[in-house]
């Protein structure tokens, strides 16, 4: 390597993790990663979790999030959150937690960026429709579908299907909301997760790492705040409606007291900014108290703690639950939103039924070997195809196959 004068320059020494602060004993250590399903040479310049993050960002599934619904169908207005903007916001909050708690920020970011990969078009409406259609064949779960995407459906590499993410990132993807087996499991174990666990065990009876827990609670903070913001933009709620909420109402009062002539748009933005800050600061303080009490000395001690460590204080948990109930009443179940979502569910159900009845309507790469599959595998193949669709692509497919397609938004 030479400079402009032709003089040989010394090649810089590359140090993995260069510039990173010493992490806490309970943080995941990339040097002790449990590896990947398919063994690969280590990178000379990136930790395993940096590679995972980069693979996630460069995947097709990540780009598709741009045109997938968060709450409001993306065609309704330019400024509503999509799955992609929501994911970026979750990632930012999650990294803030990891920095404060001295955890591995790259693993935290990887889990945050991949957590919504499995959502079908039209958000939870599409998931409800696919779950009903797939009920005889094992059901549909967006978390399990995210695992299928990163282990099977993404086909970018010469030597393996999927993204071949590290064990710790897969663990975080699957268990960020808690254990999936045993007395602490909240729901039945989806079949795709069960099948993959038999191949590459993820210790589903345990909690995930603190890094994954940061991503999970960052998701709660992001949507509880930004769904309020989008609800205001949509005209479903007014600023005055927030006054009875413990968290948003107290913030509104203090801003009005200090800035009595502030415009509504600035007032709303200031509420949302402080809303996030209050929750983030509460989680950091509560998590430090939990860590001091439990005194875990390793990531495995975190997994075996028998409880979530990165969490809200009881008072903040009550306020967050109140906000969630408010959003269900005034935003998620507003008739204008529900009418659009009912039409969206019909679109997904129509497509599933048509492809099951006429598999030759599928693209060639999706109908390959269809005749040799049993009905359950056929249904799962169709669910894979549908769940990968963006809102716009699903509507285009519906217009191709049906005489009438409902207008959404």
UniProtKB/TrEMBL annotation:
GO terms for molecular function: dGTPase activity. Residues 83-202 form the HD domain. Coiled coil: none annotated. InterPro entries: dGTPase, dGTPase-like, dNTPase_2, HD/PDEase_dom, HD_domain, PHydrolase_assoc_dom. PROSITE patterns: HD. The keyword Hydrolase applies. Pfam families: HD, HD_assoc. Keywords: Hydrolase. It comes from the Bacteria. GO terms for biological process: dGTP catabolic process. Belongs to the dGTPase family. Type 2 subfamily. PANTHER family: DEOXYGUANOSINETRIPHOSPHATE TRIPHOSPHOHYDROLASE-LIKE PROTEIN (PTHR11373:SF43), DEOXYNUCLEOSIDE TRIPHOSPHATE TRIPHOSPHOHYDROLASE (PTHR11373). HAMAP family: dGTPase_type2 (MF_01212). This is Deoxyguanosinetriphosphate triphosphohydrolase-like protein.
